[in-house]
Amino acid sequence: MFGLRAVSPGDPATLMLGEGATQELIEHVREQEGLNEPIYVQYFDYLQGLIVGDFGYSWRSNREVEAMVIERIPATVELAVVATIVAVVIAIPLGVISATRRNQPSDYGATMFSLLGISTPNFWLGLMLILLFGVWIGVLPTGRRAVGFGEAMVTLVQYGSATGLITWLQHIALPAITLGTYFTALITRLTRSGMIDELGKPYVTASRAKGLPNVLVRYKHVLRNTMIPIITVLGLQMGTLMGGAVITETVFNWPGLGLRLIDALDARDWPLMQGIVVFIAIAFVTINIFVDAIYSYLNPQVNE
Questions:
Q1: Do 296 and 170 share a domain, yes or no?
Q2: Which residues pair with 64 in a beta bridge?
Q3: Which residues form a coiled coil (predicted)?
Q4: Domain limits at 213?
Q5: Do residues 87 and 40 both lie within one domain?
Q6: Is the sign of the CA dihedral 32, 33, 36, 37 positive or negative?
Q7: What is the tally of structural domains in the chain?
C-alpha cells in the first residue's frame, strides 16, 4: 500500500495547505514531512517509526494517527462482534435443521436462504433495510449511533437505566444484520455439510446402538465435532469483518474504522490510511492466534 503514494494523483503538501498556498510554503512542508525524499527512503523511515510505535501524524487533521485509530476501534469491534453473534445464532440452528431433515422443505428453505445471503451485496441490503425499517415502517434509526456499548453499560450499572442499552441496540441492529448476512449464509452451509459428514460416521451408529437419545448424539457429539472447522472459519471471518465493514459503516454512517478509512481516502491522508490498514492486519493475526488456541482445546489431537 505504501507504494501507492508514489503513483496516486495529487501532491500531499498541496492537499495539506490548500490550493492557495505559495510554492515556497509547499516546498517547506514537503521538506519538513520528508516528501521530497525518494519513496524507498520514506518507506524505511515509516518502518522505523512503526518499530517504536510511531504511526505518524494525519496530514489532514495534524493529529496522531494512533489516537485517531484507537478512538474508532470500539465502534468497529462492536459491529463485528454483534454481526458474528447474529450470524452464529441464526446459522448453526439452520444448519443443524437442514442436515437432519435432508430433502425436506426446511432443508430447501435453509439452502435457499444461504444462496440468497451469499449472493446479496451488502450495500444493496443495507439500503433496502434502511428503506424498509427506517423510512417505510420507521421503527429503527438509520444514522450514526447515539451511544456506545461501554457508555450504555455504565449507565445500566450505575443508574439502573436500560435506556442507553436499548438505544444502542436500536442503532446497531440494521448494520449488524447487513454485515452478518453473508456470514450467516456461509456458516449455515458449513454447518450443514459438516453435520451430514459426521452423521455418517461409525461412532454415530454406535452411539445410537447404545440407546443414546438422538438429541444427545446430535448436539453433544456430532455438533461438537462439526464446530471444529466452524470455529476456524469464525476466526477468519471475524478478522475479515474487522476490515470488511467499510461499506456497511459508510452506508449507515457508523463511526468506525471503515468510515474513517473512506474519509482518509477522500482526503488522500496516507498516514491515516496506512495506520488503519496496519491495525486491521494486526487484529487479523491476533484473532487467528486466538482461534488456533480454541482449536487446540476442541481437538487436542492437533497438539500430538
A1: yes
A2: 57
A3: none
A4: 73-303
A5: no
A6: positive
A7: 2
d(CA 233, CA 294): 12
Find all residues with CB under 8 Å of 17, minimum gap 6, and list them. Answer: 25, 26, 29
pLDDT digits (tens, 9 = 90+) for 241-254: 776 678 888 889 88
Predicted model pTM? 0.83
Name the one residue in this structure whose C-alpha cell is 437505566: 161
- 10 Å Cβ neighbour count for 59? 22
Please indicate, yes or no, whether residues 284 and 141 belong to a single structural domain of this protein: yes
Residues 29 and 82 in one domain: no
Q: How far apart are CA 295 and CA 119, in angstroms?
A: 29
Same domain, 47 and 118: no
| Residues 183 and 222 placed together within one structural domain of the fold | yes
pLDDT band at 7 (very low <50, low <70, confident <90, very high): low
Q: How much is the pLDDT for 236?
A: 73
* Residue 281 counted as domain residue: yes
| Residue 32 cell numbers, joined | 519538513
C-beta separation of 76 from 242 below 8 A: yes
Q: Report the 10 Å Cβ neighbour count for 218.
A: 20
Rounded mean pLDDT, 115-127? 85
> What is the pLDDT, as a whole number, of residue 120?
85
